[in-house]
Design goal:
The complex is a heterodimer. Chain A is mainly beta. Chain A contains one helix and 16 strands. Chain A has an eight-stranded antiparallel barrel. In chain A, strands 9-16-14-11 form a four-stranded antiparallel sheet, with no helix packed on it. In chain A, strands 13-12-10-15 form a four-stranded antiparallel sheet, with no helix packed on it. The two termini of chain A are 40 Å apart. In chain B, helix 1 links the parallel strand 1 and strand 2. The chains are: A mainly beta, B alpha+beta.
Chain lengths: 164, 502
């Protein structure tokens, strides 16, 4: 299988030949890649060099935590990528859903429905682990439906409000 | 003399205190909330009793229940740790009234130092310098504060009278923004301490946050165990501490130490306490506040002095004299502590919750880890995000930094996001290595993204790792679909599969 993986703006063409061989940008390499104890901790030995990383599937990128640094990596099937490029890329979604990044308590909601907000504006305050966290607008927009009230407890990933 | 200690706390500090008790031969009683049934402090203690539901106000803040449990279990002493009830004079007084030894200062000293206004007035009387601010703190209204503000001068700080840990603290640059900031400071103080009172203090710029560990016994001895440098903070939360401070020489250490001792004597102090100072660019120092309890970062002092502070606390609480006189306190080498928090350094340090699925703790020469969590333990949103303290010792500051770097790289925690990458980046920062930083460094001159760009780049390796992980996952899901070589017929298999997923 052939993949095109993008890390920090750089594209790498990586073909996985079998369990131990890959072709990286045209060069064949011997790799030994194992998961440690079924965890998202992976050990890789490549040309005698030993690396260990925590690798987690994010959306849409894979998060690789390696030597104290986070590398978000976009892994695409070469065919998929070609198809996507042909169709002109994904269209930006019109509506943004603000979801609770963690479970907690809504302290205050600082906006009202139909209110115009600017990027970076604080929308509401969520208290978790004794800290008050300001949740901000990721872009300019108009506040759509607000699904929660101050004083309510929320679960992680619960939709709080929408922006359009 | 007491023989059984109830630990009115949870997490790493409860474990730390249980360890000291064990080594001395004292029996231990743990208390826990419903969320902490399988916490380490419950597993390590000789006895354990349920307090109530997970929220602190229904569990670890229930002074009445804790005293009740102490009585029923026959515990004749209580160690409060830090946070929760540690600085509540009513709790200390209630323990005394019940005939239980409170391992800490007398209620009167907690009261005097707990109210920041009274604390300032008390130490001023003893000749200790303080940061200029509102002196006669009481119930000052917003109007009073707005009137006084220009006399103190901007920038200034709004601080909670009952405060601590940066809660209810706001920085004010101009009078125009002050009314709104007062409102939010009061709101936060009210929710954190149940007391919305605030006061004003001049903001000392370019300052370092230096604190002195002091220890007092009931025989009139007050000794300091040297300083801790705590300038690396974010939103007034300490992230990393070291001892000794690169900013102090022997002469300054001796002067600040004796002022710290004087401040403790001013409130007739007993047991362990910490005097916090601000040290400005010209090496002028000002009293900030006193923490009348064991401090989170006490292990770095233990590493450089060789003194077990918790054991000294117990010794003093049992009515004995300190084991050390000032001249016996010797400093050796350098220690650093990194607070490992369950928060995402790549997403504005948002708290992260979840079950710890994998954990590999660094060990080896000069490394100490104080933690209350282990694989399988659930990090809940109810308590502080600090899940561990990684402490290292080295012969010199440079050795300690190299060792911390090594230990951080060894540390694996999976299941929650942690700030370990932040600490790793800090250890590589030239400003940190040079000891050139103040309390604003993290927020104003340190960016994880920028600092990372200058570090060794493993982008290519990361790309290979991500691709192989993605490939493995694709292969796994492909195996479920392409079942050509299975022994049962495809129809049988589909039937089983459907039943399984009903």
């Amino acid at each position: 299988m052939k993949y095109i993986t993008t890390v920090e703006g750089k594209e790498y063409t990586i073909e996985v030949l079998d369990d131990h061989h890959i072709i990286l940008n045209g060069k064949t390499m011997l790799v030994d890649f194992v998961s440690v104890d079924g965890q998202p901790v992976f050990s890789m030995i490549v040309d005698g060099k030993s690396y260990e990383a925590i690798i987690q599937e994010g959306e849409p990128e894979w998060d690789v935590l390696l030597r104290g640094r986070l590398y978000p990596a976009l892994v695409e099937d070469e065919r998929e990528k070609r198809l996507k490029t042909a169709s002109g890329g994904a269209v930006e979604g019109g509506e943004y859903q603000l979801k609770a990044p963690m479970p907690g308590l809504i302290v205050t909601v600082l906006v009202t429905e139909e209110q115009e907000v600017t990027k970076g504006q604080v929308l509401l305050i969520l208290e978790s682990m004794k800290m008050q966290n300001e949740l901000k607008a990721p872009r300019d927009g108009i506040v759509g439906r607000i699904r929660i009230k101050a004083g309510e407890s929320v679960e992680q990933k619960q939709p709080l409000l929408s922006l359009h | 003399m007491f023989t059984k200690v109830l630990i009115a706390n949870r997490g790493e500090i409860a474990v730390r205190i249980i360890r000291a008790c064990r080594e001395i031969g004292l029996e231990t009683v743990a208390v826990y909330s419903e969320a902490d049934r399988s916490a380490l402090h419950v597993r390590y203690a000789d006895e354990a009793y349920l307090l109530g539901p997970a929220p602190s106000r229904d569990s670890y803040l229930r002074a009445d229940k804790i005293i009740d449990i102490a009585r029923k279990s026959g515990a004749d002493a209580v160690h409060p740790g830090y946070g929760f009830l540690a600085e509540r004079e009513d709790f200390a007084a209630a323990c005394e009234d019940t005939g239980i030894t409170f391992i800490g200062p007398k209620p009167s000293a907690i009261a005097a130092m707990g109210d920041k206004g009274v604390a300032r007035a008390t130490v001023v009387k003893a000749g200790v310098p303080v940061v200029p601010g509102t002196e006669d703190v009481g119930n000052m209204t917003d109007d009073d504060l707005l009137a006084v503000a220009p006399q103190i001068g901007f920038p200034l700080l709004i601080k909670a009278t009952a405060g601590g840990g940066g809660k209810g603290m706001r920085e004010v640059k101009t009078i125009e923004e002050m009314p709104n900031l007062l409102k939010s400071a009061r709101r936060e103080a009210e929710s954190a301490f149940g007391d919305g009172n605030v006061y004003l203090e001049k903001l000392v710029t370019g300052a370092r946050h230096i604190e002195f560990q002091i220890m007092a016994d009931g025989k009139g001895n007050v000794v300091h165990f040297g300083e801790r440098e705590c300038s690396l903070q974010r939103r007034h939360q300490k992230l990393l501490e070291e001892a000794p401070s690169a900013a102090l020489d022997d002469d300054l250490r001796q002067r600040m130490g004796s002022v710290a001792v004087k401040a403790a004597q001013a409130v007739d102090y007993l047991n362990a306490g910490t005097i916090e100072f601000l040290l400005d660019k010209d090496k002028n120092f000002f009293f900030l506040e006193m923490n009348t309890r064991l401090q989170v970062e006490h292990p770095i002092t233990e590493m450089v002095t060789g003194i077990d502070i918790v054991k000294e606390q117990i010794r003093v609480a049992r009515g004995r004299a300190l084991s050390y006189k000032q001249e016996d306190v010797k400093f050796n080498g350098h220690a650093i502590e990194c607070r490992i928090n369950a928060e995402d350094p790549y997403n504005n340090f948002m708290p992260s919750t979840g079950r710890i699925t994998h954990s590999l703790i660094p060990t080896g020469p000069g490394v100490r880890v104080d933690t209350g969590v282990y694989p399988g333990f659930e990090i809940t949103p109810f308590y502080d995000p600090m899940i561990a303290k990684l402490i290292v010792w080295g012969e010199t500051r440079a050795q300690a930094i190299l060792r911390m770097r090594r230990a951080l790289e060894e540390y694996r925690i999976v299941g929650v996001k942690t700030n370990i990458p932040f600490h790793q980046t800090m250890m590589d920062s030239h400003r940190f290595m040079g000891g050139q930083y103040d309390t604003r460094f993290v927020e104003e001159r340190f960016s994880l993204e920028e600092a990372e760009e200058s570090r060794a780049d493993f982008g290519e390796i990361a790309a290979v790792l991500a691709t192989l992980a993605a490939h493995k996952q694709t292969e796994r899901s492909a195996q479920i679909v392409q079942r050509n070589e299975r022994d049962a017929s495809n129809w049988k298999w589909v039937g089983r599969w459907e039943r399984m997923h009903r």
